[in-house]
Amino acid sequence: MNQMNNRQKVEDMKHPESQYEEKMIKDIFFTQLSDMIFIMKVEKGANFRYIFANEKGLEYANLRQEDMGKLLSEVLSDEKVKHLSRYYKKVIQTMDTVVYTDEIENKKGEKRIFESTLNGIRNENDVITYIVSLTRDVTFAAFEKKQLIESKEIYQSLIIHNLDAIFSINEKGRILNANPASQKMFGLSENELLHRSIYDFVDKKSVSEIYEVMTHTLLDGPKETTDCTFIGKDDRKINVQLKTVPIVVNGKIVGIYIIMRDLTEQCENNEKMNFMEMHDHLTGLWNRRALIEHLQTEIVNSKIKKREFALLYMDIDRFKYFNDTLGHQAGDDLLKQTAERLGSIKKTNYRVYRLGGDEFVILLPEHEKKEVNRFSQYILALFNIPFIINGQDYYVTPSIGISLFPADGQDSETLIKNADGALLQVKEKGKGHFRFYRPDMNDAFPNYILMEAHLRKAIELNEFVMHYQPQVNLQTGNVTTFEALLRWQNRKFGNVPPSQFIPLAEETGLIIPIGEWVIQNVCAQLAEWRRKGHNDIRIAVNISPKQFFQINLPDVIQNALKRNELPPSALEIEITEGAMEDTRAALSMLHRLKELGIIISVDDFGTGYSSLNYLKRFPIDILKIDQSFVREIQVNEKDAAITKTIIHLAHNLGMEVIAEGVEEKDQVQFLVSAQCQKAQGYYFSRPVSAEEIEKKVFYG
To answer: What is the pTM for the complete model shown?
Structure first.
């Protein structure tokens, strides 16, 4: 025995540090830890025996050190044994960690919440033989968690039950949350809103404003704006009052709350009031008050930007007679249909007003005279289609007076007065056409009125002559087609350039009889050449937009062909792109012409109302590339690309291509390489008389 004690002493002397560390660890587990530790041995019959409990555990379970080694049932009440055994058994059944909480009243009468974590210890046979229980006081953490849950519920209640739409977005604008009110406002489900950009739902007009608000919020704090438009389901516009609040986490802004109040109904009511104040009750067009307001704004803007705009003053010819004959209801129907037609023009940058009676005004911002001329021709064409009133077709014509800013006035009153003055001149000259106001007509252009008088007699005095420009086949060099060009040799003015007398003819309506004269004379020339054996010749005749929409145009052409015993294929009708803006009327007229067998070409392609749609729908045979593209094809890559594209497009659509304004050899070579069929221009020949054509082309 002494020998064993001595051996132990020796061992103790050898490992004094180990003994100290073991004692220290036991002391920490037993007395220092604030958590309660229990080690239970698993006995047969699902009984559990205390093996170890630290000081806090003994105090918590109201046990003594002498209770270690006893069963649960020997030291605890039946109720507690049943309670604890349930969790110990669960560890054995699941072979996993089990966590549970208890609410216990301490000696001071305070209710405390304890959380216990049970872990099983397995033997070499993977059987749980011991269970370690770690129990800690989580009262404060539970209280914080409860407060957090309550705060979250309060926050969610504020968001969920708020009548205003509330979104939370990240700093990039991505929607993270959307409350029920926002779903109702936009007519979209939560899934349809989440993770999309808030800008997906912003109207284009409000994007810059919303971006500014968001940027301000991320940098400086809350922001508010009262005039924003968002887009809901089915493209429904939503007017909102918008507030933004930064989402701050750890002192850093990580997102934004967006609060929206729906003002759509209020805005609609305001719009209705404004509409009634600024619109004509019969047609829905802007009224005189709106015209004055818009004109003043346009004048200021045009002065700043140094740009022109036009004012068209229009009325319906013989409207009083129409109204008196058919009654006021029919007159109102005519006015409403007129308003619809004027509002249907495929231009976004214009406004139509009704001043009263049959007086209408059109404001054309940022338009020069050439554009206004084309627009006015289109308006006249709108009236070539009959008005259906009480099941009956009625034809009426408009008269239009035009004033230009700043040339014809720099205030609204002067511009309206001068446009009205131009309208009176139209009325005096036979109605049914348009005229620009000319305040200096008798000074700067002393012969203008006299020129008009001479133009009216030009046909009678046989002053018009036709010239012809050859269209050369670029592959063979042959010429079988020509473009007919009108020339005016006046006894008083000499050779008047087409650039002067054609616009005058358009304004005065004389272009109609002049155009018919051209058709008759071209057909007569074709007949003469055919008698001389030139049977394969075709001539292209330019048709003005105003003439193109004359109902009797096909009859005029058919009569001219019959009178001269010509096949329809001998005549080509050349129209401008502007004539095709009124798709329905143009399509109807083109089909009537094609029924005759006439060849149809489009002049100046690419400079006006270019549309792949009309190329597909309209019966067009030839595209003429405008000289503005041809002129720069050697030096301008874009013009070269456009020219090639037009040629390729025409070929794919089965159309012939003619290039205009060819003046240089390099241009010819480019067109040949691009497989353009024909070309015309000064490089080949100027427009010349029929006699010179015979000498240079037929017999040269």
So the answer is: 0.43
